[in-house]
Amino acid sequence: MLQRQSILDVSIERFGDRGKSIAHLDGFTIMVTGGVPGDRLKVRIVRKKRRYAEAEIVEVLTPSPLRTEAKCAHFGVCGGCKWQHVKYESQLQAKRDSVRDAMQRIAMIPDAVVEESVGADEIYYYRNKMEYSFGSKRWLTRAEIGTDIKFEDSVYGGFHVSGNYSKVLDISQCHLQDPISYELLEAIRSHARRKGWSAWDVRTTTGYLRYLVVRTTTASDDVLVNLVTTGFDDDKISEVTSLLQEHFPRVSTFVNTSNTGVAQTAYGDANVVFGPGNIVDRIGKYEFEISPQAFFQTNTKQAGRLYEVVLGVGQFAPGDHVYDLYCGAGSISLYLSEYVERITGIEVIASAIENARANATRNGVDNCTFVQGDMLKVLNDDFVSRHGRPDVIVVDPPRSGMHPRVVERLSALRPEKLVYVSCNPRTQARDIELLGSGWTTGPSHPVDMFPHTHHVENVMLLTPDST
Predict the structure, then answer these.
(1) Kindly report the CA angle at 443 between 439 and 446, in degrees rounded to 5?
(2) Rounded Cα–Cα distance for residues 336 and 396 (Å)
(3) What percent of the chain has pLDDT over 70?
(4) Rounded distance, CA 200 to CA 209, Å?
(5) Would residue 423 show up in a list of annotated catalytic residues for this protein?
(6) Active-site annotation holder among 174, 327, 368, 423
(7) Distance CA 14, CA 373 (A)
(8) Where are the alpha helices (DSSP H) in 248-398?
(9) Predicted local confidence at residue 1, as pLDDT
């Protein structure tokens, strides 16, 4: 009988949710962490549920031809790049398959058409932002637990292992951002250890160092460093300033953010130590000022490709009035601005709206209006009367998708075109199903914004049926 700690031989059939893979034994589903379709594995059951079990790999008996060597020394522990051991072309196919599955199973579109995934030219060092956590307690790997090495409380810097926020995986490298990123982490971490500084302890809610946020740009070599600490300490910050200016001339601006609360967040009161307090990046011909806490697409180059897909799918006309819902810092609005008559953007986060307006001004764009407010409250008849009915609506909601009442409102507005951009095809499919009958769905267009992860962006066009 299948139970926890059982050792089994299984064959992986396909990828499943959240980067796991699927096998079956006597009709029972087993979700395996780190499996690749085509693998024959010896696995150990770690969790047993009524309808499925979760397992970990004990031994790869026969590797899949889809496997490749993972580049990172922390692969398998960090959890950030769950598909780094999968050939890139196979990742793209898996993402295409996941979109098709969502549209068929959740949106109830049996003949769903899904185009090939738009891949990235750069599958390493593609992120423009990294957020490293500091902690006083180190996450120990299984190999480390099996030794007599003692790891005392100190300053550790890196990432939290999935599901555990009390300890930090102390990293020595990361291949997601420009190498200067983890070089900065190592320099600040080493300095803090030498000086006897403390790092944040989740359990006692004490400690000085909390986060290191590094932002880079494709438009220049400039680097923004944001050190998040518990309160301001001028002497310590002066030491970090000297360190940065002596060893990291690319750092054009340094910000110290104070978070004195218990919440695990890199937000707080920001103080610009040196430099302008922001860096500038570019998507297409548009420049964007990026402050420490501003939202900006994490993969700049793929964002340009994503917006080209939006442009192609939407087939916008020069006289169009476009609503850009969940507009963030206005990057989609600006990208579309030269192709339409005017754009009205709505976003709930006030700072994002400020960024959107500043970005429009910076780029000389005068046909975009940005409105701050909760979509449930703002998108009403009065709003439409004041701003005019839209010909096209573009939505790019958070991973949770849209509120059902917002979906109802879009259905009632019945624009000529609804372009749905999503970072979560499952909630996108749910919303499409909620729209109900009376809409024609076009093909799905997956775009890979995050190589080596299971995440995929998807763009779809919906048009109302004639009445």
Answers:
(1) 125
(2) 14
(3) 99
(4) 6
(5) yes
(6) 423
(7) 42
(8) 300-314, 331-336, 350-362, 375-378, 381-387
(9) 66
Burial annotation 16-27 (CB, 10 A radius, 16+ → b, else e): beebbbbbebee
Answer yes or no: are the C-beta atoms of 349 and 357 closer than 8 Å.
no
- CB hemisphere CA count around 316 (13 angstroms): 28
Residues shown for the chain: 467
Q: In this predicted structure, what is the pLDDT of residue 374?
A: 95
Pairing of strands 52-62, 28-33: parallel
Please name each of the domains of the chain with its CATH number.
7-67 (2.40.50.140), 90-122+298-464 (3.40.50.150), 129-290 (2.40.50.1070)
Is the per-residue pLDDT at 5 higher than 90? no
CA 99 to chain centre: 17
Distance CA 12, CA 37 (A): 5
At 145-170, the pLDDT tens digits run 767 777 788 999 999 887 788 899 99
The pLDDT of residue 439 is above 80: yes
What is the Cα–Cα distance from 95 to 83, expressed in whole angstroms?
A: 11
Two tokens, residue 149: 């090495």
Average of pLDDT values for 183-203? 97
